[in-house]
Amino acid sequence: xxxxxxxxxxxxxxxxxxxxxxxxxxxxxxxxxxxxxxxxxxxxxxxxxxxxxxxxxxxxxxxxxxxxxxxxxxxxxxxxxxxxxxxxxxxxxxxxxxxxxxxxxxxxxxxxxxxxxxxxxxxxxxxxxxxxxxxxxxxxxxxxxxxxxxxxxxxxxxxxxxxxxxxxxxxxxxxxxxxxxxxxxxxxxxxxxxxxxxxxxxxxxxxxxxxxxxxxxxxxxxxxxxxxxxxxxxxxxxxxxxxxxxxxxxxxxxxxxxxxxxxxxxxxxxxxxxxxxxxxxxxxxxxxxxxxxxxxxxxxxxxxxxxxxxxxxxxxxxxxxxxxxxxxxxxxxxxxxxxxxxxxxxxxxx
Length: 350
Fold this sequence. Notes:
alpha+beta
C-alpha cells in the first residue's frame, strides 16, 4: 500500500540530503547482478573488461555503480544507475561532463571540443540520451560519458581508454549504451540537447524574502510526495516542466557546482552538485491559495530520495542569494522516499 505520512516538527535537520556510507553489494564473482527496479544487468564481463565490486551509495540500491577493468587497466568502464534530484538528461549530462574535466587521474580535456551526440530508441525515447567523447591530454588517450533516463532513474556510463582515439571510443560507447540490458521503462524520455553557455546575464535586484505559511508548505511538498507515491505504486509519473524547458549554463559554473538558467529569460533554475544526483531548484509554486497573492518562489534541494525546502521569495532570487539561503541550513519542509511511498515533514510556523 502506498501512503504519504504527514509529520509536523519544530526542527528539521540535515543541510544536504542524507546519503548512506558506500556499501559493497554481495554477489559471487562469477554471477550476474540485476538492479531489480530497472532490470539493468551487471554481467561479469563486458567485452575485454572484467567487473570489479558493485557498490551501493544510497540505501535500498537507489544509487548503484560498478567499474570494469581490462588487463593492464588500459580501459576502464563504469556503469551507474541512480535516483536524482532532477531527471533532465540534458542538464545532468552537462554536469557530468563538467566532472570529467576535473578528473586528474585521466588527464585534461577541453569540454568544448567533445564529440557531442544524442541517442535513444522507441523504448527509452528517440534522441533522449546524451553522449560526449573527448581526446585526453594525460595518461589516457580518450574518455567519454553517456547518460540516459529509464523511468525515474538515470543510467550513466563512463568509458576511458589508453589505446582508442576519441572517434573509436564514441562508436564503442554508443554501442554499449544502446546494448545495455534493462526492462522497458513505463515512460519515454523527451529528446535531449546540448546545453549552451548563457549569453550576457545582467545583474538582477535582490529578491524580497517571503514567509511561507503551512498551506504554502503543503503545496510545495505535495508534488514531490505524489511523484514518490506514484513510483512506489508503479504508476507512470507525469513529466514536469523541467523535461521540456531549454537551459543554458551560467559562466560561473565549475566542476562540482554547475549553475543553470532558463534559456529564454535568464532566470536561475538549478544548481547541480557533483554528478551523482544532488540538485537545488528554484522556481514559483504552482498555485497560491492566498487571495491577491502570486505563488511564492521557493528553493529546494534533493537527491531523488529526500527533497528539502527552504525560505520563500516574492521573485526569483539570484544564485548568490540561493547559496546564502542554503548555507543557513534553515529547512522548512522535507519529503522522504520510503518503501511504500513518502513521508512529509513540515516545520511548525512561529
